Amino acid sequence: MEFVPCCQYRGDGKVTKTSDKHRWNMLQLAIRNNTLFRADDYDMKERAGIDKQYTYFTIEYFIMGADLLADIDNPEMPIHRHWKYREELIRENKFVIMSHGGIDMPKVISKSLLLRKYHDVTRFHLVDKGIAMEVGSKYIRDEIGMGRYLRYLMRDEVYDYIMKHRVYSKE
């Protein structure tokens, strides 16, 4: 499995709160000694700073939370924040969508003309039983930022790195 973290300054105008350097270092620690995992800095290096860090250019298979599924074709989102190449992205890739935040994934798909257009038995694999993504990256950032102890949610090396570099400190 390949991990391709997005650049800190994304094409949709969002900026991650954690620097590319820290996110890259934490990823390296998280997958260290696992030969099944590989990290690729394509978005962070190759496309950084050119405002073209579109998901479409970097994936073939996408694992994401249901919150991102709801954002792909969200009509309430301003046009300049829409996912670039979203139709091509959906048409040409497969998705594993993890339950998150109580979002009704089949309802999200059924309400979107675009998602419905490409929905078949192979396009979207909805994981809503047994595994939940209620503990996501935002939860971890917020909890550590408030000084809570979350070592048990990640490898020790990653937790130690976060604490040493005060990655999510609110100061």
Automatic annotation (TrEMBL):
Pfam families: CTP_transf_like. Residues 18-100 form the Cytidyltransferase-like domain. Keywords: Nucleotidyltransferase, Transferase. Coiled coil: none annotated. One of its GO terms (molecular function) is nucleotidyltransferase activity. SUPFAM superfamilies: Nucleotidylyl transferase (SSF52374). PANTHER family: NICOTINAMIDE MONONUCLEOTIDE ADENYLYLTRANSFERASE, NICOTINAMIDE-NUCLEOTIDE ADENYLYLTRANSFERASE. This is Nicotinate (Nicotinamide) nucleotide adenylyltransferase. The lineage of its organism: Bacteria, Bacillati, Bacillota, Bacilli, Bacillales.
